[in-house]
Specification:
Immunoglobulin-like
């Protein structure tokens, strides 16, 4: 049962009262309360039960003016404040009631403990719930409720011990009047540059998508997204792709839908408007409920929530993969590391493509629904989820949360923080240990070196150390791409298209960089005699010719190129800087070229199709006066001899 039930049950003494009133040493007698005050209190009680909390508070205040020692009124007002999540006022009124008559008020120890926990006083909450559990004559339902709350308070205290806050301060900031209104705003979604915010606004039970742009560090006046997305039907839980070109959302009760809520996708057109949404189809959508989509930065994986059969609980988190043909695969459950026998929902995959945030009421936490973070171990395994901790998580339900590319700036909906009306969008910084990796990105255009026309191509990002592919994406039809780069690793960057030499580059992000993004426009060269590329991911130790293991990623690309083009013959050219003797440099460059050639031949390529040549320092591409120039001159090139 939920905290909300217990608050009402205990505070208003309605159906299922927890224990009989104790009479020993009790001075307060409800029957002796002023009749007018009790009549007003009765109406206040009815207002509270109907959810008219403000009206109830006004009437309780009027009753207390007539009967200042009206114990029940204080305790009931404490319950109303708890329903409004004003736990500070709730605690104050509970304590007034206890001060007036501790014996009569002892019935309220459990809801009192809940309100204490609502203010973050988990140690006091544990003390009070233990008093409650020590009360003679508790029924089994009350014992179960008390023990449940006790376990959450113990969790909170244990978490605080294991995760000390240090200098961290939780300080949410409301996004302001340009974004938030008297209506409900929730479910934020952000492009990787942090400049475009799309969210859901609910006006008179109609949900629509709105957008706002960050201009000079201020959010512009939010307006409905343009195009054919907003309808008279129920759409929500949207997710914009990192490059801002796709919008995936949940559409409910659409005429063509598979179930109650389905996943839909729309594409941004050149005029800035969105296309008419397309249903993702029966492979992804079922007769059940699908919602809360989150697209990986490379657009290959789509995480979402569903209550379809085959899961571990009510709602589970699933993932579907986009195939090379552009189709979505049959969804896979994320497994028992993430999913529980409760509800697990609202997944958000960060721009680093490794960190997953989600909410759950099945993992151990503070009660109700908490937010968690898990890290990807490999393509099918996730780390044990970590609770985001108090005060991000509270005793109440926490909804969706997203994290910007910097890994620390979070956005979520809250009804606190100077709310303009119910849920507002707010931002805050995460503690260090629950942050994602700061993520930079590379964007640009792939084009034909001769015609300058854009080329749809494949872009691959590989972890240089593990050799695992981090991202693999397709450019758009004009060759535009965006690929994310989590800090803390070195990457091999390759661009491929049939009929062209591949492009290679590398990014070293083991050390933090000030830049947030790189612009790399990539001219691909048709495979023809005279074409050449620098193999930027071939590595040797200083003055050595043995290949380092990190070179194998690039070398396998060369093997693939020769395999796919059986008439292609090439020359591998080695080059050095001008440090050292000319003869030594010539020998070193030739031996390095031979090392590359020998590896390629060892993979089954006919030796007649590949030759080696060393040029030493004879063909520099930069000056040797600087270390940067020398590094550019130390290179391995692939030259096309013939493709006939």
């Amino acid at each position: 049962m939920t905290q909300r039930f217990y608050t009402k049950a205990c505070c208003f003494l309605i159906a299922g009262i927890l224990i009989s009133l104790l009479t020993q040493a009790q001075w307060y007698d409800p029957d002796k309360v002023n009749k007018k005050a009790r009549d007003i209190y009765g109406v206040a009680f009815d207002d509270a039960m109907a959810g008219n909390y403000e009206a109830s508070l006004q009437k309780i205040e009027a009753a207390l003016k007539i009967e200042p020692k009206f114990v029940e009124a204080y305790l009931s007002r404490a319950g109303v404040y708890a329903e409004m999540r004003n736990y500070k006022s709730s605690v104050a009124d509970f304590e007034k009631g206890f001060a007036l008559d501790a014996v009569f008020a002892s019935t309220y120890l459990l809801p009192y403990s809940i309100s204490l926990a609502g203010t973050g006083q988990f140690d006091r909450a544990l003390t009070e719930v233990n008093k409650f559990l020590a009360t003679p004559g508790l029924n089994q339902q009350s014992i179960k409720a008390g023990n449940y709350r006790k376990s959450t308070y113990e969790f909170a205290l244990d978490y605080a011990t294991k995760h000390p806050a240090g200098n961290y301060t939780f300080a949410p900031v409301n996004l302001g009047d340009s974004v938030n209104t008297k209506y409900l705003e929730y479910y934020p979604s952000l492009t990787i540059d942090g400049k475009k915010l799309i969210f859901t606004r609910r006006v008179n039970d109609d949900e629509d998508f709105y957008e706002s742009d960050l201009i000079d560090e201020k959010w512009s006046k939010a307006k409905p997204v343009e195009g054919k997305i907003n309808t008279n039907f129920n759409e929500g839980a949207q997710n914009i792709s990192q490059d801002g070109q796709w919008l995936i959302f949940a559409g409910c009760n659409y005429p063509e839908g598979q179930g109650s809520c389905d996943l839909y996708i729309a594409y941004k057109m050149k005029n800035g408007k969105w296309t008419e949404p397309e249903n993702l189809g029966p492979i992804v959508n079922t007769d059940y409920w699908e919602s809360s989509p989150s697209l990986s930065p490379d657009k290959r994986d789509l995480y979402f929530c569903s209550n379809m059969p085959g899961g571990y609980g009510g709602k589970d988190i699933w993932v579907t993969h986009r195939t090379q043909a552009g189709k979505w695969s049959r969804p896979e459950n994320l497994g028992p590391e993430i999913n529980t026998n409760g509800d697990d929902a609202c997944p958000f995959i960060h721009a680093d493509n490794q960190t997953l945030y989600f909410n759950s009421n099945g993992h151990t936490g503070y009660g109700s629904t908490d937010l968690y973070v898990s890290r990807k171990i490999n393509d099918s395994t996730w780390s044990e989820p970590v609770n985001l901790g108090y005060p991000v998580n509270t005793i109440d339900d926490e909804g969706s949360l997203i994290v910007a590319a910097d890994g620390k700036t979070a956005y979520y909906a809250s009804d606190g923080n100077e709310s303009r009306g119910g849920l507002d969008l707010c931002t805050f910084n995460l503690r260090d240990e629950i942050r994602a990796a700061k993520t930079l990105w590379v964007k640009g255009r792939v084009y034909d070196n001769k015609t300058k026309n854009g080329l749809p191509s494949t872009v691959e990002l590989t972890d240089l150390d593990s050799r695992n592919i981090i991202s693999k994406l397709q450019t758009d039809e004009e060759g535009n791409y965006l690929v994310t780069l989590p800090e803390g690793k070195d990457y091999v960057f390759n661009v491929n298209r049939k009929g062209y030499l591949f492009y290679s580059d590398n990014f070293s992000l083991l050390k933090n960089l000030a830049d947030s993004f790189f612009v790399v426009d990539i001219p691909l060269q048709p495979i023809e005699a005279g074409a050449a590329i620098v193999l930027k991911n071939i590595f040797f130790d200083n003055n050595k010719s043995a290949l380092k293991p990190a070179s194998l990623i690039e070398l396998d690309k060369v093997v693939g190129l020769l395999t796919d083009n059986p008439k292609l013959t090439i020359q591998i050219s080695g080059h050095t800087d001008n440090v050292g003797k000319e003869a030594d440099n010539l020998t070193l460059s030739l031996n390095r070229a031979k090392s590359v050639t020998n590896y390629i031949i060892s993979k089954g390529i006919d030796a007649k199709r590949i030759t080696s040549k060393g040029f030493g320092a004879a063909k520099p591409v930069a000056g040797n006066e600087t270390e940067e120039g020398k590094a550019m001159n130390r290179r391995t090139e692939l030259n096309v001899i013939s493709n006939k």
